[in-house]
Amino acid sequence: MSRRDSRANAERILDAVQRLWAEDATPSMDQIAAEAGVGVATVYRHFPNRAALESAAFGRIFAEELLPLVEDTENEDADLLDVVARFVDVISRYTPVLGEVGVSQVTDEALTDLAEPFVELLRRGQTKGVLRRDLEPLDIYWLLRMVVLGLNSPVSSPSVRRRYLAMLLQALSPDVEQPLPPLTEQDYDRLNTPASRRRPPVAGDRAT
């Protein structure tokens, strides 16, 4: 088999995983192989175990669906509130499987990798006067984390997500007069150590 054919098989397998994940949290390797139109041995040749397959599939979801939402920070029309809503929509498509493989870890990794563009969107929104000035990069990380974990419950729905996301996003408006309660240095230390042990935006990198 040529390298091109081998890569094509790997892509078909990942395509199959993403299609099945939208329907079933735990498709068997046999189901994945059948959906991809390859033998089970071919699946294991590319991905020696389920963990390797899940990691590769999430890597592709990140690269193809999440990263494009926030990476174009030079686009002046990019808006943090819109990006947050679309980010949650993408994650919600994979709610069943996220519950099985550990939504907390997946969320931590995705948000950490996307920290810089989210910080840029935050600063741009503050400069334009559409986001409150006392928001910090750390706030955005943890707000997004709470949104993803809270709104991707199995009992959630598109209307539930829209309702509570709208409530949250209204709290980011500069029209809110009540200042945010301050965080202590101990809070910053704890919040800068998420469960995944990967660092979110650090407290010292505060938006101005």
From TrEMBL:
<feature type="domain" description="HTH tetR-type">
    <location>
        <begin position="7"/>
        <end position="65"/>
    </location>
</feature>
<feature type="DNA-binding region" description="H-T-H motif">
    <location>
        <begin position="28"/>
        <end position="47"/>
    </location>
</feature>
<dbReference type="InterPro" id="IPR001647">
    <property type="entry name" value="HTH_TetR"/>
</dbReference>
<dbReference type="InterPro" id="IPR050109">
    <property type="entry name" value="HTH-type_TetR-like_transc_reg"/>
</dbReference>
<keyword id="KW-0804">Transcription</keyword>
<protein>
    <submittedName>
        <fullName>TetR/AcrR family transcriptional regulator</fullName>
    </submittedName>
</protein>
<dbReference type="GO" id="GO:0000976">
    <property type="term" value="F:transcription cis-regulatory region binding"/>
</dbReference>
<dbReference type="GO" id="GO:0003700">
    <property type="term" value="F:DNA-binding transcription factor activity"/>
</dbReference>
<feature type="region of interest" description="Disordered">
    <location>
        <begin position="178"/>
        <end position="208"/>
    </location>
</feature>
<keyword id="KW-0805">Transcription regulation</keyword>
<dbReference type="InterPro" id="IPR036271">
    <property type="entry name" value="Tet_transcr_reg_TetR-rel_C_sf"/>
</dbReference>
<dbReference type="InterPro" id="IPR009057">
    <property type="entry name" value="Homeodomain-like_sf"/>
</dbReference>
<dbReference type="Pfam" id="PF00440">
    <property type="entry name" value="TetR_N"/>
</dbReference>
<keyword id="KW-0238">DNA-binding</keyword>
